[in-house]
Amino acid sequence: MKAINIILCLLVASSVCATTMNEIDERLTDVEIHMLQKKIDLGLELQMFGGYLNNDNSEVSNKAYHAKIFKNNVRLKMKGDLNNDFQVYTSLQISHTFNDNLQSGIDTNNDTLTPTNGSKPYLRTAYFDWKIANKLVFSAGRLPTTFGPPEHHKLGRGRLGTYPLTSFNFPLDGVSLTYNPMASSDWSIISRSIYVPATFTEPSAPYQGLSLSSNNPSTAAKGHEGFTQMLEIDFNKKNSFFDSANTIFQYSYLELGSFVERTAQLQLLPNTIDRNIYRVYADGKKLSRMKIISYYQDFNAIFQTKFDFYFSYMKSWANPLSNIKAEVLSDGTGGTTPAGTQFTVGQFIKKGEAEGTRTIYGLKYNFENSFIGGEFWKTTGVPIPNDLYSDDPIALGGISGESYHSYYTHQFYNKQVSVRTGYVHVRTNREFNIFSYVDKKQNINLAYTSLFVSF
Questions:
Q1: Are 137 and 130 in contact (CB under 8 A)?
Q2: What 3-state DSSP class applies to 7?
């Protein structure tokens, strides 16, 4: 009997010990998770877009074009704080139209000339900030060169990107030095120097050093290389003219890398509907050498009212460095251009030196939980296409002409949910198509509703 009691006591004791150890393990796990959560912040942005588009001057079919558009943009964000001097930021994004071939993918070649639309995620940002001195921060990686000002105004958010929207709106990998020599509660001056280095020639085997040519068109050429210098001034002291203001001056020099050959049905033949399938490639390592100057300015609560005003201006110069050629792979014109026919179709942006400007004017009136606003875009000449990765149905950065945009936004749940209704009217003179501008007179109207969630 004593033996049985001893055995029962041992079983109970072991059970209690096991339970206690499990509780300790769970508590340790909870502590680890809690400590991890204190170092890593996770966020999510969801933007759903539905609209009705009308284009009454379709030059391809000579008929009016009408369409319903539904698009979804999802962005997963992460911020990691190692300590007060070192932070990491990254975001993945998916941008797709509803039921576009159910599961449409993006171009896997990382081709800058291809918009990243599809149901597969792509890397939007991935960089770190390292405070290496009292007023000096070193950054490297895929930098926040998208969604720059004034994009945040119509979303009712804080600033989302570094570069002004008129200059760049596509991801760039590089290194940056940010120097803040003067800062106070009233104002600050920030100098930012950004270098975009060229990559090796062949991503899968960089040690081979192969270059792109007409004899070796499937090999990627060197990537983009350039430099940007920015000066930013923030003024936060309320006065009779405004509550706060932000000023940005920017100069950029960029050599745009060539692209991997692409096979596509393109409209290259004049005065006919082109049904040929082409292999398109560049005959050099660089497409273009570009210079860009930009100026951005906004004023919040001007003249002590509820109006916000913003303005942005960009001028660019581009000198092409390569010819873009096409070879007919499949003749769809009935023998006019047989397979194997080759010809030069132009240069990047245009043949010869290209010059153009892009200007944005914006005005917004703020209510307690909503705001109403309007924007006017005007593009002259042939500026660099700056909106190759747009999340909007109409990429205004690839159009030469004028655009009018009016909208009303209401915000819910501590301004984490925004519902916007708007109307866009676009008159185009030219449109950027694959690698250059083509003359295209169009009148485009778009009525839409958009839901934006951020937390």
A1: yes
A2: helix
235, 365, 296, 238 alpha-carbon torsion, rounded to 10°: -10
| Contact by Cβ (8 Å): 109, 134 | no
Q: Which is nearest to 325 in space by CA: 266, 280, 286?
A: 280
Give one DSSP letter per residue of 103-129, joined into a string. TPPPPTT--TTS---EEEEEEEEEEEE
Where do the structural domains in the chain lie, given as residue ranges? 2-454
φ, ψ of residue 383 in degrees (nearest 5): -75, 170
Greater model confidence, 361 or 160: 361
Residues 14, 290: Cα–Cα separation, whole Å: 75
Q: What tokens appear for 402 in the block?
A: 């004028």
- Fold held by 2-454: Porin (2.40.160)
Tell me whether residue 66 is exposed, middle or buried, using C-beta atoms within 10 angstroms of its C-beta: 0 to 12, 13 to 18, 19 or more.
Answer: exposed
Largest CA distance in the chain: 105
Alpha-carbon torsion 125, 131, 135, 139, what sign? negative
Q: Is pTM, for the whole model, over 0.85?
A: no
For residue 408, give the 3-state DSSP assignment: strand
**Which residues have a Cβ under 8 Å from the Cβ of 375 and sit 6 or more positions away?**
150, 154, 360, 361, 362, 403, 404, 405
Residue 438 in tokens:
């083509």
What is the pLDDT at residue 166? 83
Tell me what the mean pLDDT of segment 242-249 comes to.
95
What are the start-end ranges of the H helices in 233-326? none
* Rounded-to-integer distance, Cα 403 and Cα 18, Å: 70
- d(CA 122, CA 112) in angstroms, rounded, equals 13
Residues 389 and 374: their CA atoms lie apart, in Å, by 23
Query: Residue 165 carries which side chain, given as an amino acid letter?
Result: L
Q: Exposed (0-12), middle (13-18) or buried (19+): which is 388, by Cβ within 10 Å? A: buried
Confidence of residue 220 (pLDDT cuts 50, 70, 90): very low
Query: Which residues, other chains included, contact 345 with Cβ-Cβ below 8 Å and sequence gap of 6+?
Result: 268, 280, 324, 325, 326
Give the pLDDT score at 260: 61
